[in-house]
Each structure stands twice: as C-alpha cells, then as structure tokens.
Amino acid sequence: MQPVSITAYTATTACGVGRSALLQALTNRQTGLRPNDFGPSPLPTYIGRVQGLEEQALPEAWSVHECRNNRLAWLGLNADNFLEQAKAAVARYGADRVGLLLATSTASIGASEEAYSRLTEDKRFPEDLRRSTVHHPHSLGDFLGRVLGTRGPCLTTATACSSSAKVFAQAERLLRLGVIDAAIVGGVDTLCGSVLFGFNALELVSPEPCRPCDPARRGINLGEAAGFALLERDGAPDAPRLLGWGESSDAHHMSTPHPEGLGARLAIEAALARAGLSADQVDYINMHGTASQKNDEVEAGLIARMFPATTRASSTKGWMGHTLGAAGIVEAVICLLALEAGLAPGCLNSQSLDPVCGPQIRLDNEHAPLRIALSNSFGFGGNNASLVFQRGQV
C-alpha cells in the first residue's frame, strides 16, 4: 500500500470545537463529560455533550436539512478552516474526482424521534418536520454533498462504532484504483433517546464518568462528535500519512466481542501488514476502550499478547465519551495530534489497571517522540477496523 497524505483534519467533541481545544483538553487532562441533562427524562449517567449546539443553526440556504446531527456536522466542518480546504480540493481536482465518504450510526434519527413525539391529530408528522431529507440514513451525505459541491462517489457507512474508521479504508481503495484523486472523509453522531435508552437496556451505561481498563469500571458514557479529514495521494512532506488499514467481521455476537479477540487481531494484523510494519514499531495505540467489562478485557489482553512493553496504549473515551459512529475519526484525529505533539495520552478517570492489562496500557500522559500510531475501532456485530498513521517529516 502506498501511503496516503492527510492534508487537513479536524474534530469537534465535548472537549470543544477544533483541534486546539481537543489537544488542550488532552494535555491538561480536562474531561468534557458531564452529568446527563439530555432529553425530558435523563438517565442517571454522564455524557459527552457538545456545548452550545442548541444555539447553533444552519444557514438559511440549508434549512431544509435542519436537525441536530447536521448542525453538529456544520459546526465541525467550519472548524480549523476545514470547509475552505475541502472546497479548495474540489476546485483543484474537479467535483467528479473528489469522493465524499461519511459515517454515522444514527444519522438524523433524533429528528424522527421528535416527529413521532409530536404527531398531529391525524397521526402525521408536524409540518416543520415533514422534510424527507432528515428521515433517512443518508441524511448526512445528502447535506454535506450539497454543501461541498462534490459529484464523485458519496457513501454513508453505518457499521456501528467502526463506521468512521472504515471510511479511511474506503478512501484508500478508491484513490489506489484511480476512481478519485482526493477524498473527504468524516463521521458525525449526535445524542438521541434511541441511543441512550438502547445502551441502557443492554446494561452498558455507567452512572459515573467512565473508567477504561479500570477493574472498577461500570460501563460506557455516550457522547457526540464530528470529525473530518482530507486525504490525497500526494501532500507536503510534513503531512501525516495513512500507512495501513485492516478490517474484519467476525460476527461472533450482536453486542459482545469474540472472547479471544479474533476479529480485532485480524484487523490489527492486516493494518500492520499493509503498512509494512511489525508490532514493535508501533509507538502508541489508541484503544477502542469503551470501559465496558468485556470490550476492555478482550482488547487489553490482545494488546498484551501482540505488542512489546515499550508500546504505549490507552483509551481516550474518558475525555469525550463513546461517540459511536464518530469514534473512529475522532480517535484518528487524536492519534494525529499525538504524533504531532509528541503526547501519548493516558486513561483519564481510571485509577488502577485491570490485571488483564499488560505494561503497554498507561494511566498517565507521557511526552515522547512518536512516529507510528495505531487506532482501533471495534463495533457491534464484530465489525472491526484498525488504522496505522505515520507522523509527517519534520
């Protein structure tokens, strides 16, 4: 696999809007989690809610796409000058030669929930929500395709929590095959009742801030986020690169990982093979690390078996929660920031490590020269993806 340049990237999370806010939160170990205040009957948990999203509004030209998910997409798209850089790429290559590869696990389902809660007497959606564009899984792609003016492949991926890691693999394949010359990849997911109460029904939601890899962990905190990246075949030497990707689908169980981490191992091995690297060349691993009992046990054990003690590993979900379909790209951005800043984040909120953890998993942040980072995203149903990134030349 020829490395692909990442010429622009951004993320908006509960830690703030854009890369600087995220890096500052990581460096200062400041969490964006807060007691749940979402919805008319909030569950007793913590959430990663993007501050001020309710005060945002789409420009009038895009009002037909108005919903929480698309508002967050617009907020994230305008951070770090990303919208301008993406439009410049469309102008440079031509609208037909730029792919738009997006990911979400819930799309704009929050708007559909609201519509059903406000049915009229004749059982119709209220007039302000009779907009088909916000009631289908491709709502995000439809909105952003119009905003960016792309006419190349436009795909929406929904493979649960691996969704916005898989778009990097899709982009590399399309670039390598010559179908496109550049790809805008992204992931956006917002809080909604279906997600909060659905995960609560699975007994996976923690009543306290999540504690990845801690023996006293009690489950996940849900969050919302938007992240985007621009991928091109060639970039400046100082641009970071996607060196490899790996995907697998072990289909072991609807919501529980394979007990030996078979699918996760296959994804990691494939990513390293495409990158032409061995496990001992990885400097930092951003774990999927949801703080659920089984995920952390299986993933930590796999890392202990596959990687040397010198590799640093952590879960960063203690900062913004589990952002589901946006988790892959948010944690890819964290890896890129880690490489750029020479910062390996630890596991925020965690006080000790589960005995299954090896020496790779760290509680505290560490400053070190990092060259290679691996990001893991493992979704329900055994949808697994791993990405390998390399720091740009300095």
Automatic annotation (TrEMBL):
Q: Name one GO cellular component term.
A: cytosol
One Pfam family, short name: ketoacyl-synt
Say which domain of life the source belongs to: Bacteria
Q: PROSITE patterns in the record, alphabetically?
A: KS3_1, KS3_2
Q: Which UniProt keywords apply?
A: Transferase
- Pathway linked to the protein: Lipid metabolism; fatty acid biosynthesis
Q: Does the keyword Transferase apply?
A: yes
Q: Name one GO molecular function term.
A: 3-oxoacyl-[acyl-carrier-protein] synthase activity
Which residue range or ranges hold the Ketosynthase family 3 (KS3) domain? 1-391
Which residues are listed as membrane-spanning? none
> GO:BP terms for this protein?
fatty acid biosynthetic process
Family the UniProt entry places it in: Belongs to the thiolase-like superfamily. Beta-ketoacyl-ACP synthases family.
Q: What is this protein's name?
A: Beta-ketoacyl-[acyl-carrier-protein] synthase II
Species of origin: Ahniella affigens
